[in-house]
Structure formats: structure tokens, C-alpha cells
Amino acid sequence: xxxxxxxxxxxxxxxxxxxxxxxxxxxxxxxxxxxxxxxxxxxxxxxxxxxxxxxxxxxxxxxxxxxxxxxxxxxxxxxxxxxxxxxxxxxxxxxxxxxxxxxxxxxxxxxxxxxxxxxxxxxxxxxxxxxxxxxxxxxxxxxxxxxxxxxxxxxxxxxxxxxxxxxxxxxxxxxxxxxxxxxxxxxxxxxxxxxxxxxxxxxxxxxxxxxxxxxxxxxxxxxxxxxxxxxxxxxxxxxxxxxxxxxxxxxxxxxxxxxxxxxxxxxxxxxxxxxxxxxxxxxxxxxxxxxxxxxxxxxxxxxxxxxxxxxxxxxxxxxxxxxxxxxxxxxxxxxxxxxxxxxxxxxxxxxxxxxxxxxxxxxxxxxxxxxxxxxxxxxxxxxxxxxxxxxxxxxxxxxxxxxxxxxxxxxxxxxxxxxxxxxxxxxxxxxxxxxxxxxxxxxxxxxxxxxxxxxxxxxxx
Length: 461
What we know:
single chain; mainly alpha; Amino acid/polyamine transporter I; 18 helices
């Protein structure tokens, strides 16, 4: 059972594998299932997958290790962990702003994530009831547009999804987070395998395999490397305090390096498997490979609607999406929740409900961005949803990731870092500092600059 006689939150994951599953659940989200397969296919297939694995090793894993390391050392919420570590290291207390940035980013992302996840929940019911069986492309597209145009429907599904998330996190680490992970992650794997078997027999498996894995080096550009680095960073839930918050619950005897590598491998496996489940079905029906919501909520329902047992497997696919979304949403809530519980010595359930209400209200801006406020734009012509998404994903997360890694490598005492990582040889320590303290932050900086430059250029012109 969890050790409840320790400092900070006083809670621990019951074992290493529960942390692995929880962190993998945080990493596996909506973006994994539609975004990675698409960008892999468009940027060189197997060549891109190799580049992505290099970026996971050079960018994702070092930054995740840094976050988890700091979380385990601080044994508190991200904000209190940064305060504590800054004091231990003789650094300015202003470094706690990194904790605030992570908490804010996670909270902003959750506000719109709950809305998008609500779409997946709605599509479980729509697919299972046979709404898309034999439907034309126009009918499926119109159905999606009508759904987005109804704020009442969007709010209903947003509310249900957020309520489930808050109920789970309000129950604590053992009864809430662990219990949910024990159920959702195995079910996610089972659903994914079922969809893979279905896709294998769809008649388009060879095309899907070629789309994702043929070595198309001619399609690889400098931008492909930036895309791979960005995906490696974002897919692992870095920069938002989640891994620091989860790291606070990691048992002392867990080896951080091998644990984080395992998480990254599970995340990558699910992303690749999702592609092998999705694209054969798309190709078997002669449909276009679209990106993002178009693929998930228009192309795939159309494909399932044309296939035998399509209603059943369509419902299973959106159930898979919903499970991936709930495990990510749980992790997005934890940094803010753990801070408020510690700061005010408040009851976890009460804080969870309060956070849920604030998040729900903020999420209304995202709901209305697709209907009532669709013509309301801010800087750069972005809607409310686009603005919140851009600020959190493209500014707060990369900055947070870079600075957290910088702090962990260059400002924490070297012997403390080596002890946490179990490093005993000097050359390993030097190699680690080069990888995590120089290469990883520079890679994220490159992604950060390339992402915000078009917006800055547009504002300056």
C-alpha cells in the first residue's frame, strides 16, 4: 500500500508500474491517436518514425527525467517543489514561477480538453446507435457541423466529462488516480488490440503500413525535424507540471531512468499502433487522409459506416479516444489540485469541485468559439479557443520545459542529481548534463522560435 508517513503530500504510488501507467496515461491523449500517425505519414513515414525516436531520446526523455527527478526530490506540488528546491540550492525563490507556469498551462489545456473530449463521448453514442451506417460524406460532415453549432450539446458533454474527471481526482492518489489507471489503461490496450485486428482484416492494412513505415527520406525536410522534436516534447506531457506532480508520488526505490524510458516506449507504441488501426480503415474505403478533427470526427465515422460491424468498432474507437482523454485530463488537474490542497490544508474533494467549476466556466469560451463566438477573434485573428491553445501549448509549455531542465541540470547540486538518477561514474554524469542541459533545451528552443515566429512576423508587418 502507499506510504502515508512521508513529507509533502504524504502519498505514494503503490508501486513503480502504477506510476508508469499513470504517466503513460497522461502522455497518451487525443493528439497521440490522430496527430502522430498523420505527421509520420506526411513527413517520410518510417524515416520520420526513426527521427521521432531520436528526438524522444534526445528531447523527451531528458526533460521528463528532469521533471520527475525534481518532483521526487521536492515531494510536493510543482509550485511548492520549485520553492523548496530553490531554497535547498541557494537560488532565488522566484524560480517558483516555473511551478505557476506549469499549473496555469495544465489548467488552461484542461478547460478546452474537456470540450474536445466531450466530442469523443458523443461519438461513442452516435457510432453505436448506427447514425453513420451507410451515411454519405456530406451527411457525416453535416452531422459534425450541426453538433459543433449546438452550444447546449457541447456543454452537456463537456460537463459530463469534467464531472467524471473531478470525481476521480477528488478521491486521492490511491482511491482515485490509481483506481482509475488500473481500469482505464488495460481497457485502452484491449480496445487498441481489438481495433488493430479489425484494421488488419479491413483490406487496407498494407497501404496503411506503407503510409506509416516506408522509408521516404525524400519527404524529410528541416521542418520535419522540428515537427518531430515538437511532438516528442508535447506528447509526453512535459512543461505543464504533471510529471513533477506525479514524480512527488514516485517510490524512493524506483530507478528514474529506466522508468521514464518505459513510459516513452509505451507512449510511442500506442501512437504507432493507433496509426496502424486508423489508416488501413481509411485506405480500405478510398478516403482522403485528413488531419486532426476532420480525420477523427468526419473521415473515420464515414469509414466505419461503410464497413461490416462498423457501428460496433466505431463505438469502440471513440471509447478508446475517451479513455485516452480521461487519463490525460486526470493528470492535467493534479498540479493545481495538489498545490491548493497543500497551500490551504483543504479537503481534496472540495478543492477538486472548485477547480472543476472554474475550469467549466473557462471552457465555455471554447464551446462558444465553435458557434456563438466564431466571429470573435483576438491577436493574430485567433478565436478564444485558438488563443488559449496557442498561449498554453506554444508559449507556456516550451518555456517551462526549457527552464525546468536548465534548473535541474545547472542549478541543483550535482551530487543530488546524480544520487536521484543512480549515476556513479563521472563520464555518465558529464554525458547526462550535455544531453539534458544543452541538447534538449536547444532543441525545444528551436521548436519554440519556429512556432511563434510566424505570429510575431504577422504582428510586426
